[in-house]
Amino acid sequence: MIQINFRSFDPQRAAEIANAVAEAYFIEQMEAKAQATRRAGIWLQDRIKELRDQASAAEQAVVDFKTKNNIVSTGEVSGRLMVSSSLPSLPPSSRVPARRRPRRVPSLTGSKPS
Questions:
Q1: Other Cβ atoms within 10 Å of 14 Cβ, number
Q2: pLDDT tens across 36-47, in order?
Q3: Is residue 114 within 8 Å of residue 102, measured between CB atoms?
Q4: pTM over 0.90
């Protein structure tokens, strides 16, 4: 809170001048806040662009690594690797039952399945 005093022989004139100073102060404060908000918005936009560029470079590095090392991705959904939290949302027909997995491992090693 600020206090503005102005003395004059004319009380109406004193009130007008005090009110004009208060209004000018208020306008200046609003403009300063708006300018700070604009600067913050510009900084955020620049930062978002930097982070997007970094993410794109990282994704390209993963693709390059996979290509170089002949790695094939399975379980990709819409171009993104599937995370374990998305597995429960898969339809049951697309899941391999756990009882079938152990039988495959011995067959790959040459021993008989149990």
A1: 14
A2: 999 999 999 999
A3: yes
A4: no
List, in order, residues 6 or more apart from 14 with CB less than 8 Å away.
Answer: 6, 7, 8
pLDDT-above-90 percentage for the chain: 53
**Considering only CA atoms, which of 95, 113, 96 is closest in space to residue 104?**
113
**Interval 55-92: pLDDT, tens:** 999 999 999 999 998 887 765 555 555 444 445 555 55
Q: State the distance between the two ends of the chain, measured CA to CA, in whole angstroms.
A: 83
Q: Hey, what amino acid is at 48?
A: I
- Which two three-digit tokens encode residue 87? 């597995």
Half-sphere exposure of 60 (CA within 13 A, CB side): 6
Element (DSSP H or E) covering residue 76: strand 76-77
Do β-strands 80-81 and 76-77 pair in parallel, antiparallel, or remain unpaired?
antiparallel
Enumerate the β-bridge partners of residue 54: none
Paired strand residues for 81: 76
